[in-house]
Amino acid sequence: MKNGVIEISYLEFGKNEGKQLISMNDNGYGYTVITHTSIIKSGSALRDKLLYPYFHNRLINSFHKNMKQRVYALSQAKSSVASAYEN
Fold it and tell me: What is the CA radius of gyration of the chain?
């Protein structure tokens, strides 16, 4: 796999300004390491330093956990179909 980055920018005129970076890097052992970084500025120190990081990390961790489970389930289903054709 090639290494890559997805960058998502927030609207300039919204309540928040910032971006998210999702980088994907081959770890050399056939797996991809995904790093999700958020940079945010809203004009509210409470929101920027306390609220946003807490809720954003919970949301992102849940998203990545769900994606990992779906990818695993899909790989198991594909291997079951392949085994069925071999027999």
Answer: 18
For the stretch 75-86, pLDDT in tens is 888 777 667 666
| 24 closest CA partner among 42, 47, 6 | 6
- Phi, psi dihedral angles at 15 (to 5 degrees): -70, -30
Reading the block at residue 71, the tokens are 């990818």
Q: Which residue has the tokens 């609220």?
A: 51
> pLDDT tens digits for 22-33?
999 999 898 888
pTM, entire model: 0.61
